[in-house]
Structures are given as structure tokens and as C-alpha cells.
Please model this.
Amino acid sequence: MIELFRDVRINWLGKRRLFLAISGALMLLGLISLVVKGGFRYGVDFKGGTIVYVRFQQKPPLDQIRSLLPDSQIQEFGASGSNDVMIEFQGAKEEADASAGREAITGALNQGFQGKFEILNAESVGPKVGADLRRQAVLATLYALAGILVYIAFRFEWIYGAAAVFAVFHDTLVTLGLFSVFNREINLTVIAALLTLVGYSVNDTIVVFDRVRENLKVRRRDDFETILNDSINQTLSRTILTSGLTFLTVLALFIFGGEIINHFAFAMVIGIIIGTYSSIAIAAPLVLVYTNLRGKRVALPAAAPARPAVTKAQRPVKVK
Amino acid sequence: MTKRIRNRLLITLGVTVLAVWRVAAFPGFIPSLTHVKENIRLGLDLRGGTHLVLQVVTDDAIRAETDQAIETLRQLLSRDNIIARQLIRSQNNEFKAVGVDPAKDADFRRILNERFTEWDLVSTQGDVPNTYTMRLKPAQEQAFREQSVDQAMNTIRNRIDQLGVGEVVIQKHGGPGENEILVQLPGMDDPARVKGVMQSTALLELKLVDSGPFPSQAAAAQNYGGVIPAHLEVLPSAERDLPNSSESSYVVNRVAAISGRDLKGAYPSRDQNGRPAVSFNLSADGAQRFGRVTEENIGKMLAIVLDGRIQSAPRIDGRITDSGIITGGTAGFAPQAAQDLALVLRSGALPASIRYLQEQVVGPSLGADSVRAGFMAAAVALVSVVVFMLFYYRFSGVNATVAMILNLLILLGAMAYFGATLTLPGIAGVILTIGVGIDSNVLIFERIREELRAGKAAVSAVTTSFSRVFVTLVDTHLAALISATFLFLFGTGPVKGFAVTLVIGLISNMFTSVFVSRTLFELVLARKERAEAISI
Model:
């Protein structure tokens, strides 16, 4: 039997000040980056405007394209050696017809490169839609968090729900901050990634809490901090394995998934690391701090008949 | 093999066969790649096409409704000899009858009560004494707005259908009051013509000419002492009708004798000089009115107005009932233009203008690139996960692999069954489903190892682990479902596609990781004589 972690005894909760410092530093980093850069870099779907991806038959003469489209941002994208160019055009704020931008760009390109290029993808969004989509995205995230809070509070105790949601909120903030640090663009698919991470991170937290609930029932004499630590340690190999494997799958997406979902994949890659970290470093300490303040341990209702879990005495067993 | 294991194996096998059949063979029984392509619908981002979000400017419809009301009132007042100084539209949903004859106050109010039930009388004061202000009732206004969106949707559908673009999606979009329509045109990467056809209001009106042609609008106004009377308007002509002026205009009745609503049909034809033109005929009701108007106005000119421009203004030679022709002037229409015009006239006028809010055009090669990239990523993810599981959990890794592949099959089968669309973020959802599935397996396997370490026999370790982990899995899956549901509710297009795969993946994963995986464990354990060892 190959085992990465066996009988781990790490005092996670004793390091909660360190975790607090790490999380604080990450968030501060994101905040500074946001202030310095003057806000997020939104994709066209959020800020309105036009973005056109063009594939040229030959190496595209960027200078010539720039002279044809003086108001646009032009850059190469995709693998080196590809002839793909991204053209972004902010467009007038009052633009009534969203497609005017695309028509202007194709018109200009036709002047210089008639028949020598192909439109890969063109997206135009009016400014009103952009603002709407942004509002909807924020609402979707908040509703999802509220839904999860209620669910966990119902299944465990309200402090567990609050801790899980706070941890997830922390993940979202850190991920958004890192998006700013790495100058990544926030678009609709990134919001989808964030909502997925919300689910994923909560998943991780629930696995730990579930073990806490189980241990609380059978180890009535141990103090709460020990139980929390043991619960994290008992689920640690699962946590690392799962995160590692999921990380592997999104890494594949990040490397092979192509340009269009690259920002999405980036959010997933970062978020999986942060989401795993926060279950241990944020959610569990929060429950402990609250419990210590209340001066007693939070009794948990029984969720299902459970057998005594594995505790200390562990005999080596014959395994094939 | 016990009866329990046999039943569970049969269920698993049945689900597998059903999923494979739905993906690969439906509606027949012989699997083929063609069927797979038909059953798994690819989204626009993968197959190429155009995605449009447009907004119906419903203010137009309300304005038209108000104008219509003013016209009705004008006719009623003249019938009953009630004098009002002026009838004007003061806002989109509001009009004023200025200076109504005080002696006929009661009659006027009676008309309002009887014929204007959809309107509220909001004021009887104004700069001029005895001025009535009528406003459309809010509920009625809302109904008109919704109606105009429905009507616009029908019109657009009619028009696009006639262009023969396959598998078009046309549906309402956005929240209430946003009046948005989503149009998806798969395989169409140059939307110019479709948009032209879609956007054309093609508002056909036949209006009696009061005077003209004039070389300019100012010249037209001069003919009336500087101010055009309220019931008339000046319209530009699409043609040069005067020998020594580059433009010309006519003064015509504001109210159309006949409008696009009275059309029965329209088809491309030729004018008397053999140039492309569009002929139309009228509905029975329209023909009757047209007959009466032409009869009463013999010798006058009749302007054929399309979208506010006069196409031609022939003289009425005699009573015409049910047909007419729209000529393209001296140059004639281009044949394509005549065809498109006939098409939009046939499909009915748009009740309001439309505005494009969002447009996405995906070229066919990007779609192909994305499919390739997506499958590459999925394959790499799948292979690396399988290799790791086999290495780390040995025989149990096979178990996890079977569960994972079955999970993917069920996911695809369910998508085919629900007619869900596979988008690029959807492929990301599939890859994530692989991750979630593996998580469930790892959770169970690690628990089994733990129980074994604690000294339990294999059978009891498996049973305990599954029943214990089941609780965790329910919690984690439900929490994930909650966020996926919000994604589905708030997302549009590609994001919705992602949410759909995620939701189906979560549900099918519950089945494969709990039911199927456990069955496989029990099958293996049942075959051993001394069920104490397990390869994990």
C-alpha cells in the first residue's frame, strides 16, 4: 500500500495566527494591486465594447493593423508562431448598436487584407448589458453563498455554516485579488469558475466538519481543539489527494484548453489551492475561536447513525 | 454471487446500456458516429455561428398606440362636431386634447368614457383652458409592451425561417421589463444579411399626397404659410421627382390610408419597365378601405411609403382594390433587395424598432480549435487521473476508473436526453465532473484504509465506510448543487451550458461513486473465500 500521509499529527489550529497573516497578506496584495491598477480588468462582456480574434494567413503585420485601426488595442495571442491577433475596441459609451464595433473592425481589415484573414471570434456587448451582467454575477455569487450558509447551518450548527461561507468568501476575495495581480481579465466564464470554486471549497470544508461532527459524538472527553486538529489530520490524505487530482484536471484545462477558457482555467487552478487551504486555515479556526469565546464546545446534532470512528490505537493490518 | 449483488449489477448494466444507446444509437439501434454527432448538440462556441441579444424598443409601440388613439379621437370629434384646438402627443404614453369646446364638455367626456377605457384622464387643466390629458393605464401599457415583444419575436422568426437558416433559437431573454430577445444562428458566421432582414422595420404605408413635390422641406412648409398643419407631414422621396433639384419631398396625410397590417402577401415582380419591383395584395378588409380611399381621391397622388421614405407617388387613375406595386425608382431594386423586401413585408412589420445589445460571432475554425483543445484537456485529465488511481489504489483504482467512465457516459446520455447543449465551458464542466467523481472515490477509499488500519475485516470496513461517507457525500453534493443551480439561473449561453453539465454530473456521480463503486467492491469481496484482504 502506497501512502502519502499516515498518522499525521500536525497542530493546525496552533498555527492560526500564521494563517491569519498569510491570508491577510494575500488580500492586502490584491487590494494594493487593485488600487494601483485602478480596478479590475473586465472582459468585454462586463465593460461593453468589441473584441475580435482574427487569424491571418501569414504573419500579421501588427504595425499595419494598428494604422488601420488607430483606436483599438491590438496584440498577438495563442501559441507563438500562430498568426492570430486579438483586436479590442472600446467603442463609444452611447453606442446603441452593439455590432457597430465589429463592423468597423472587419471593414478596416478588409481595406488592407481582403481575403487574407478569417474572423475566429467576435464579441460585441453594449454598455448597458455589461453593467447588467456584472450586477447579475455579483447577485449569483451572493445568492449561492446565502444558500450554502442556510444549508450548512441546517445540517450542522449555524457557526459551521458561517465559518464555511466566510472561508469561501475569503477564497473569492483572494482569487479576485490575484486576478488583479496577474493582470488577468474577469469575464463571465471567470464568474462561472468562481461559483464552481465556491462549491468546491465548501465541499472541502464540509468533509472536515463532517469528521468533526463524527468525532464529537464518540470522544466526549477530549477538548475541542484536539478534536478539530485530529479531524483535519484524519481527512488530510483525502484532502491532499483530491485537491491534487482535481488540480491535475484543471491544470490540463489550463495548458490544453485553449485561449478562450484560459482565464477560466486560471481561476480554477488558483482557486483549488486557495479553497483547500481555507478549509484548514480559515474555516476550522473560526469555529474554534467562536467556541472558545462561548466557553463551551458546540454540540452537534446527530446526522446519521455512525459507528465509532478510528481514533488512536491503530494496529498494523495485513494488506495485500 | 448473492441476489443483492446480482440485482445491483443488473441495474448498473442497464443504466450503462441505456446511456450508451441514447448517445450513440438513438433513435435507431445501431451505434454510429453520425448518431453521436446528432445526439450531442454542440453549442455555438464549438460549432461556429452567431449569437445575438437584441432589445425591442417598446417605446415605439407605445408611441404608435398613442398616435392611433389620437387619430381615433380626431375622427370621433369630427363626427360629433366637437371642436378642439389641438390634439397632440405630449409623451410616449400620453396625449392632450387642447382647448375642447366647453359647450360640448359632456359629449367629450362621454366619448372618453365609452371609447377610451384603456386610458386614464389624468388632468383637465393646462395652459389653454379645458385641456384634457389622457395617459395609458400602466397595466395596459405593460401589456402593449409585452405584446410588441411577442409580435417582434414572431416577425423575426418568420423572417429567419424564410431565409432557411437551420436550427435557429429565438427566445425571450433577460428579466421582465427588459424586452430582450436572444437569437442564435448556428453555422452562420456572416450575420450581415440576416441582421439586415431582421432589423428592417419594413413599415409599408400608403398615404394620400396633399401637395408636392417640393425641392426642400422648407419649400413644402412655405406652401402652408410656414407651418405644416398637424394632420399633415413632410416626407422625403427616395427618387428625384423634380428635374432641377437633387432631392424632393411631398406633403402627405399623417395617417396612413393603408398600412403593412392590411397586407395579405408580397412577392418580387417587375415594374412596367421590366425592372425588379415588389408587388403586394391586401386583405379583404384592407382592400375594401383601399377601394373607398382610391374612389374618393381620383386624380390625387398616393405615396407609397416604406420606412418613412416615399418610394413612389403614382396618380390615382381609378378605384383600386386589392393590389399595388412598390417600384425601386429609376434604377430599380437589386434583385436580392426586391426579394428581401418582399420577404420582410410578407412576414409582417416589426411593431417597434430593435437594437442590438450583444453580438458574438464564432468562426468555424475557432469552433473546431476549441473542440480539439477541450477534448485534449479532457483526455489528459482522464488519463492522468486513471494512471494515478491505478498506481495509488491498485485494484481499487480499477473500480474508481470504471465508476468514472460510467459517470461520463451517464452525463453524456442525460445531456442527449434533455437536449442540453455542450459548450466549451460545458467541456470544462465535464472535466470538473471527473475531478468531483475522483474526490468521492478518494474519500471512500481513504476511509476504507482507515477502517482497515483500525483492524476491521475487509467486508465490514467496506460497509462501514460506504454508509459513513454517504452522509458526507450527500452534504458535499447538495452544497455544490446549490451553487450550480444559481449558476444555471443567472447564467446565459455558455455559462448555462456549464451549469447544466455540472448539475447532471453531480447527480450521476452520486450514483456511480456510491452505488456502482460499492457493488464492485461487494462483487470482489464475495468472490474471495476468506474475505479479509482487499487491494486498496
In short: Residues 13-40+130-294 of chain A form a domain with the Multidrug efflux transporter AcrB transmembrane fold fold (CATH 1.20.1640.10). Chain A touches chain B through 86 residues (CB under 8 Å). Chain A has ten helices and six strands. The longest strand of chain A covers residues 117-125.
